[in-house]
Amino acid sequence: MHLHIRDNDNFINCFYSESITGLNKAISQIDSSYKKKSATLFCYEKNISCIELLELKELLLNLNVKLITIYSSSRESIISAKSLKISGIFSKKNFEKFNTSNEKQDNNKDLTHFGMVRSGDQISSNGHLFIMGDVNPGAQISAKKNIYVWGKLCGVAFAGKNGNDESTISSLYLNALQLRINETVAIGPKEKPKNNYPEIALLERGKIVIKPLIIKS
Questions:
Q1: What is the pLDDT of residues 41-96, one digit of tens each?
Q2: Domains: count for the chain
Q3: Would the pLDDT of 161 be above 80?
Q4: What is the pLDDT of residue 65?
């Protein structure tokens, strides 16, 4: 599921998780500098209970973000939304945009994508994922193994979907909105990279850290 945060019509941030619990964990790490922003949740076929949705709603309100709309193809999620006075829209068409850049591939094979990954696009690999271009804010990329972005990484990146803590995320310009390696989630760096060398995100002692990427010959 995706949570988009906006200021009027301007996109600010995007959070991705496969569960409400993971979404809450990611959101809780952001600062409270937002002022009267709105959020839209795209939750596909996920069944979200009223209790789960209330927890998300209250967490966002503490960050000055109001959950306005939920798009879902689950009737349970729509009913939960309406019971909490949140606009619930039953739809399947709204999820098509998240798969516009998905490419068919064999199991466990690496995937290389050439070109920009735009906001709303989603690309996933069963092996390593190589992006030869920029990943814009609002885009989401994932891989069972490592992710390599030969460009700017400004969207959401999820490596180690196969449960591997050794997976890494590398980029020439690492300024992601959200980083995830296996079950560990972190908000991207607040400041833009000032250095002119590639960086790598990896797990150390249960936390995601960012270091200079040194390629050994």
A1: 888 778 899 999 999 999 888 888 889 999 888 888 989 899 999 998 887 655 55
A2: 2
A3: yes
A4: 86
Are residue 82 and residue 111 in the same domain, yes or no?
no
The 3 state secondary structure assigned to the chain is CEEEEEECCEEEEEEECCCHHHHHHHHCCCCCCCCCEEEEEECCCCCCCHHHHHHHHHHHHHCCEEEEEEEECCHHHHHHHHHCCCEEEECCHHHHHHHCCCCCCCCCCCEEEECCECCCCEEEECCCEEEECCECCCCEEEECCCEEEEEEECCEEEECCCCCCCCCEEEEEECCCEEEECCEEEECCCCCCCCCCCEEEEEECCEEEEEECCCCC
Structure tokens at 116: 């920009």
116 and 189 share one domain: yes
Beta-carbon contacts of residue 10 (< 8 Å; ≥ 6 apart): none
Q: Indicate whether this model's pTM tops 0.85.
A: no
Provide the residue range defining the domain that includes 59. Answer: 2-96
Q: What is the residue-averaged pLDDT of the chain? A: 82
Closest CA to 179 of 205, 151, 212, 146: 146
